[in-house]
Design brief:
The structure is a homodimer.
Chain A (H helix, E strand, L loop, with lengths): L9 H22 L5 H42 L7 H36 L1 H37 L5 H13 L1 H35 L11 H38 L5 H27 L8 H30 L4 H26 L4 H9 L4 H14 L2 H18 L7 H16 L2 H23 L4 H54 L1 H4 L4 H9 L9 H7 L7 H42 L12 H15 L1 H56 L9 H37 L1 H6 L4
Helix pairs in contact in A: 1-4, 1-8, 2-3, 2-6, 2-7, 2-21, 3-4, 3-6, 3-7, 3-15, 3-16, 4-5, 4-7, 4-8, 4-15, 5-7, 6-7, 6-20, 6-21, 6-23, 7-8, 7-14, 7-15, 7-16, 7-21, 7-23, 8-9, 8-15, 9-10, 10-13, 10-14, 10-16, 11-12, 11-22, 12-22, 12-23, 13-14, 14-16, 15-16, 16-22, ...
Chain lengths: ~750, ~750
Amino acid sequence: MGQIEPIFWLVPAAAVLALLFAWYFFRSMMRADEGTPRMREIALYVRRGAMSYLRQQYKVVLIAFIVLAAFFSVLAYGLGVQNGWVPFAFLTGGFFSALAGFIGMRTATFASARTANAAQHSLNAGLKVAFRSGAVMGLVVVGLGLLDISIWYLVLNGLMEAPSPEQKMVMITTTMLTFGMGASTQALFARVGGGIYTKAADVGADLVGKVEAGIPEDDPRNPATIADNVGDNVGDVAGMGADLYESYCGSILATAALGASAFMGSGAMQFRAVIAPMIIAAVGILLSIIGIFLVRTKEGASMKQLLGSLNLGINVSAVLIAAATFLILWLLNLDNWALISCSVIVGLVVGIIIGKSTEYYTSHASKPTRRVSEAAKMGHATVIISGLGMGMISTAIPVIAVVLGITFSYLFASNFDFSNFSMGLYGIGIAAVGMLSTLGITLATDAYGPIADNAGGNAEMSGLDPEVRRRTDALDALGNTTAATGKGFAIGSAALTALALLASYIEEIKIGIERLVANGAEVIATLPKDVSDGIVSGTQSIHDATIADFMDWFSVNLMNYKVLVGVFIGSMLAFLFSGLTMNAVGRAAQRMVEEVRRQFRMIKGILEGTGTPDYARCVAISTKGAQVEMILPATLAILIPIITGIIFGVAGVMGLLVGGLGTGFVLAVFMANAGGAWDNAKKYIEEGNFGGKGSDAHKAAVTGDTVGDPFKDTSGPSLNILIKLMSMVSIVMAGLTVSFSLL
Amino acid sequence: MGQIEPIFWLVPAAAVLALLFAWYFFRSMMRADEGTPRMREIALYVRRGAMSYLRQQYKVVLIAFIVLAAFFSVLAYGLGVQNGWVPFAFLTGGFFSALAGFIGMRTATFASARTANAAQHSLNAGLKVAFRSGAVMGLVVVGLGLLDISIWYLVLNGLMEAPSPEQKMVMITTTMLTFGMGASTQALFARVGGGIYTKAADVGADLVGKVEAGIPEDDPRNPATIADNVGDNVGDVAGMGADLYESYCGSILATAALGASAFMGSGAMQFRAVIAPMIIAAVGILLSIIGIFLVRTKEGASMKQLLGSLNLGINVSAVLIAAATFLILWLLNLDNWALISCSVIVGLVVGIIIGKSTEYYTSHASKPTRRVSEAAKMGHATVIISGLGMGMISTAIPVIAVVLGITFSYLFASNFDFSNFSMGLYGIGIAAVGMLSTLGITLATDAYGPIADNAGGNAEMSGLDPEVRRRTDALDALGNTTAATGKGFAIGSAALTALALLASYIEEIKIGIERLVANGAEVIATLPKDVSDGIVSGTQSIHDATIADFMDWFSVNLMNYKVLVGVFIGSMLAFLFSGLTMNAVGRAAQRMVEEVRRQFRMIKGILEGTGTPDYARCVAISTKGAQVEMILPATLAILIPIITGIIFGVAGVMGLLVGGLGTGFVLAVFMANAGGAWDNAKKYIEEGNFGGKGSDAHKAAVTGDTVGDPFKDTSGPSLNILIKLMSMVSIVMAGLTVSFSLL
């Protein structure tokens, strides 16, 4: 079989270990008591709702996958412009992503009542159940991700034929990269659909429940309450998981492809460069597991202490991986290992800076959110203006962090030789892998949030002792903070991953040209003139071509109108996509409002607590709304890169990706931070400031929070998917683009 | 003197003609009666307020100009990295722009009472006074713009020395381009300061007046009323005028520079290519004057008829200029004249499409705005969500229009030879000139709006017959529509102008390298290695270098991390700039609110109509607020391109410009359209829909309108300036950037 050195087996081993620990945490959670019959009943409603949503979503996803797999097959076997492995790789990427979402969400829905029940005993017991259930999600995502990568690596290594071992490595990595398309497509539906679902239910429940009927959050008399709790699971657990599954696999695969190209011609060194990101990820899994075991707290812990115990786990994992990276790359004996290790650390640091900046801008312990709070005193309009202004300003630090991250990871990996494009870009990929290496634990803290939130809902609806609700509220408040930083992390990692994907796009173009060359000279004539001239005259070999050559051949420079046109379209697509998802939430929420009003009118005694609301119907409405509403944005996200490629070629596509990435990243940060700030500005008022609950300022702050809901939980996170998916679509379509462009 | 062919004299002649007609319209407006003593008094208050603002602003601008001119002098005479003409050109650009703003605004403040008075006689009389006063602004802008261009052309042609006539032409045009920096800097202060002023006064007046005290708009009892009316003049007249003055001069100068480079080596043809944009602009002036005379209406005209009469003038001018272009370029005997004429028409068409799309999305006669209106039924949050979503979606058509505009103007001018970068980019410049060729009349319709608005305010405050107010309301409503399309036009022309400036940046870099070469080989060593190697070894001559060569030398391709970093910073800067201006409005409005509340408390009998409010103090507060608040965004807009150039070099700067342009353009369209839609959604409800005035839906719609105010009148329009100014700063700093970059 060739190129499998023993160290490679660490990768599947870590994957299996992650899954084993996930199983262990799942079993130990399941052994916990689910509480009173009422608690079980509520949990069952939510579980059923979540599963019915997932079933419905997977139906839509299945159709999309069949259509796309058929399309890829035609491209591969009919037109010969694509790798024959793509349809299969695409399907497994989608399957594993969906499986991770399924397991994570199912775990979460089993865990909420158990968390509430454990919170009857102690805060620590509650935290433990919730956090370890979140860890199931984290470990399943990284475990299945690395498992899929390992299997494909072994399969392709065994089956692929190539003129030389080094070319084989290039072919393996570029082929594997396309399985990310499956993960991307599934993530699109999970994130966008889940995001629309959760906010349609939330906004709908709040508008009629809190505002019109004046009943509290999570009140069982509100027919949309169960849908709202289901939403936390489908949006914040399954959606977030699919998003980060995609970033995780995408960054590792893109970096492997960049490594195969950068170390072309260096023999065994190439293999080491390819598996380096996988090994870093594998070791990251082990260290994440250690971090997870470190998370515990004592009874009566303050918010700060709770946050401290989560941060302890994350920070220990991060510091250990930073140290371990030097060891790994030294053991691998990779060229320039010390500086490349610094690129990994750059990625980790960028993640931390973005997280801290998110915390600063969205926590009501700091000035920006308090100012938004204060603006609520003047009314609805000023709280909105203030939140929008603050959100826009808050984009500066994350962008500067990413800019410094790109610069230093590039310069380190290229050994400060600016002209060494391939090594520099490999460094950017390595930084993305570094940032995501501790995903096992960071995702655990993310998934923990909605579990705690649901536990609170369960406690409320089951009428448990107020002390229990107080404890779950403490867990939930912690969850809000981790959710905000988790969002920042998701956006930052999406940006770096998208950059790595963008860089590896060139590799796919190379392969595409080779395929054309193999198909005969007639096809070559459709290439840009410089390229075809070079190939035909034999002065240019594709394999010897540098990245700079490719940029030159396809004129991927900023004076090429195709690049400029691409940038405009990319920027516009980010806004269009956000607008469509915003409006989708608006429309779906509207339907929910009408249904809740209808139930209040038609079902007697709901508000008096004597009638039972029809929860299932609200769940069904949100499910249907999400399915219908996600079609248009999803279709655009897939079609526009393809159409741009057909009309404007490689230069147009790269412009599109860069424009979409730049605008999409900044827009996503803006939306996430504005939404988080409005949320906490409201909480700050509810804590008794500026008039407290029920004051005019509070009403204005609720407006801000409601506007912020689709910002931070639908449109903002959906942009993470968009910027990665555009790159993935372009990568998979590289063969088509290179052989066919109109202008 | 050389290269002055007789046809050139058409340019200064048209400029003088524009100024003569402006004088004629001004005189005829001044002859009209200003009405009752009360009307004169109100007008005097507004005029004094506007002039005191302008005086204050010009003080700040003067300081900024002294600092910048000193800085440019150091660069030119101290470090030798800049053209020695720049400091002078910079100052005249600023002076003429400020003069145009001064004349336009002074005219507007003389015209409002006269419009109200004329409206006592008939609607047509009112329209005539208002529109012709607006035409003063339009004609002064184009007249002074072309005059400045003509004078500099003659001066430089007389004084500059160059090895060959063709190189001289390149030097003249690249030097002239830098006078745009003066216009840009002055526009920055006019647009940003004016934008903050007008919305601080408007939001402040509305929040206390309409919402708290329950008195109508423009009520003389509201102390902020005069400031509000002053705001219309400083923001919508002076700010808009400075914005378009910059676009007008910038597009003509950039196209001339691109023409000088594209037609290098073609003898007399080069001169023709350079003056072609000037001649098109000159003929556009004549045709605009014809259009202005066509605008008239009959008594009792409906909104549609009023709009029709304005559109008649604009459309006739546009059709005539389209036809005239073919004639001009044929007479000039320019190579490829027929296809280049098509590029002009492309520009005109893009302008029209953007205008129509703005009208569609912001008029309450069409669906999108009605949906925003309907969302107000559900409350404050939904009207905001709906407006934001709609605004984001509304970016698609303008972007597609610009994309098609870029594509076709490039392809036409390059005679469908994609690789002919310099001709293609010349075509994009020509399209920008085409779009702006009828500025004389389009700006007249823009400036007309605030005059009509102020006339309404004057009629209200002077207690004129309700019939008069009804007539001024009709004129004002028309003004709102023209203001919306005018905004779209301003954004679209800013985008095309910025593109032309971006393309001409390369020319400045060329000149910068030449200067370095002349200064000796030591300096050459600081250039990118490929460039310096080529120059030193004599294999590369700067003059023979194509645009593609430059892109290659500086690696201005999308895989260069400096370009990517630049794109991120550019995208972020657009958001940061908008966020700062949003917050500026919030803070300045807050101060206004406190002052108005204070006056209501301290000055007895204001609300009963027996006490006189202290209008001047409110004017002073808005003035001060605007001056203070514009410092940070203005400084960032100037400094960030310079810093990016110093750190990341030419590639970083070009990335910055493209990222800022892509994101800034889309963000500006989003903000303008969302703001316009909220404004008209409120008006639609006020017309009696969804509950009408005073209903909860109306309150929610007022929230939307208030949020939309800084969107459409401060942050959105300020982005027009940002995207052009960034290019201008980079152009002026080209010498520094090329000789000094860190990474």
